[in-house]
Specification:
Layout (H helix, E strand, L loop, with lengths): L2 H11 L4 H9 L4 H16 L2 E11 L25 H14 L3 E6 L7 H12 L4 E5 L5 H10 L3 E3 L7 H7 L5 H13 L3 E8 L6 H14 L3 E6 L16 H14 L9 H6 L4 H6 L5 E2 L6 H4 L15 H14 L3 E2 L7 H7 L1
Parallel strand pairs: 1-2, 1-7, 1-8, 2-3, 3-4, 4-5, 5-6
Helix pairs in contact: 1-2, 1-3, 2-9, 3-10, 4-5, 5-6
The chain binds S-adenosyl-L-homocysteine and iron/sulfur cluster.
S-adenosyl-L-homocysteine binds next to loops.
Length: 349
């Protein structure tokens, strides 16, 4: 079968073989066709609406040493911060007042917030009637359970790559098994569970990427975030080439066809490499979520997973309006629903 036929198979049945995925990834001649199929599928399943979710980067302290990340513990150049719990709750309140239906709390992986503090933050935010997504890294079942009981209902933890050798190489002291254990725990606990990929890490190839996509399909995630790897200063991968926006968007489009009713963000890393068109292209190729950072500017500059990380130097309300306008310009609008993926709602029925 040709890659065109594999795309058609994916579009019609939402599945294909590993070989089919690999062919689509490799072949550059049918990309526009693929993007259009993904756009049609997204519009069919999520109307003309895009979820805006407010991201607060609550701490850049991290005990891990992921090879690609500017926040890795071994990077001594970073000024580390932690936002005080009351301030986090106040930022969330402002976001809720402006109209955000979901607050996303992200940080490096550490226990700088005790579990009691985290639960206090979650209970405080929950009072504003919003949904809460966490992206705090690997935790124990008991911790995930406590956060859930305190009000968190979604969790993002990217698998990054499913290739055992590459995973080990880029994540010293960590394991693919534990990553998968975390994702399984989150699902068991009833979280709306999200994962995703870092695209363009050294020594990946279409065969590995096809397996990564199959993993996302088999795990049946509710959300999938895919972004290009951007080389970060003071990391072991600082001199590498990095991933391309094109490949990230291609994988987003394939993911939309594999999992038609999930939530897929147009990621910040895409916008960072291509500030003018990146997010628009992703939104026209299957993405249906934007997560603008609303973290106060003094912290934004310090939350550098990678250099020149895109953010808008404006207040929470201006940021909302900017994205509202961007969506209008491509024939979409901000969703006023709570931001659950359709996949998740159907699973509950
Ligand atoms: N510590 C948590 C959450 C923060 S990192 C965690 O690791 O899950 C969030 C995401 O940032 C990671 O999943 C990774 O895919 C992405 N990231 C880290 N460094 C990056 C880089 N150099 N370029 C692009 N994305 C990066
Ligand atoms: Fe820490 Fe997450 Fe960066 Fe890894 S990717 S070093 S866990 S912040």
């Amino acid at each position: 079968m040709s890659s065109l036929e594999f795309i058609n198979e994916l579009y019609n049945t939402h599945t294909t073989s590993l070989k089919g995925l690999e062919e689509i990834i490799k072949d550059e001649s049918n990309c526009d066709y693929l993007f259009e199929a993904a756009d049609k599928t997204r519009r069919k399943y999520s109307k003309q609406e895009v979820h805006l979710k407010a991201l607060i980067e609550i701490s850049n302290i991290c005990t891990k040493t992921c090879f690609y990340c500017g926040l890795r513990q071994a990077n001594k150049v970073v000024n580390r911060y932690k936002i005080e719990p009351d301030d986090i709750i106040n930022y969330a309140k402002e976001a809720a007042q402006v109209g955000y239906k979901t607050i996303v709390l992200q940080s490096g992986e550490s226990n700088i917030f005790s579990d009691d503090d985290m639960c206090k933050i979650l209970r405080g935010i929950k009072k504003f009637g919003v949904q809460i997504t966490l992206s705090l890294g690997e935790k124990s079942f008991e911790q995930y359970k406590a956060y859930k009981e305190a009000g968190a209902n979604r969790y993002l933890l990217r698998i990054e790559t499913t290739d055992e050798k590459l995973y080990k190489r880029f994540h010293p002291g960590m394991s693919l098994d534990n990553r998968i254990r975390c994702l399984q725990d989150l699902k068991t606990l009833g979280y709306e569970t999200g994962s995703g990929l870092l695209v363009g890490l050294p020594d990946t190839n279409p065969e590995i990427l096809a397996k990564d996509l199959m993993f996302l399909k088999k795990f049946d995630f509710d959300m999938v975030g895919i972004g290009p790897f951007i080389p970060a200063d003071n990391t072991p991968l600082s001199n590498e080439k990095g991933g391309s926006v094109h490949m990230a968007i291609k994988l987003i489009a394939i993911t939309r066809l594999l999992l038609p009713n999930i939530n897929i963000p147009a990621t910040t890393a895409i916008e960072t490499i291509d500030p003018n068109e990146g997010r628009k292209k992703a939104l026209k190729s299957g993405a249906n979520v934007i997560m603008p950072s609303i973290t106060n500017g003094k912290y934004q500059d310090l939350y550098r997973l990678y250099p020149k990380k895109f953010y808008i130097k404006s207040d929470v309300s201006e940021t909302y309006t900017k994205f509202d306008n961007l969506l209008f310009s491509i024939g979409d609008k901000v969703s006023l629903e709570n931001g659950d993926s359709m996949r998740f709602n159907q699973r509950l029925k």
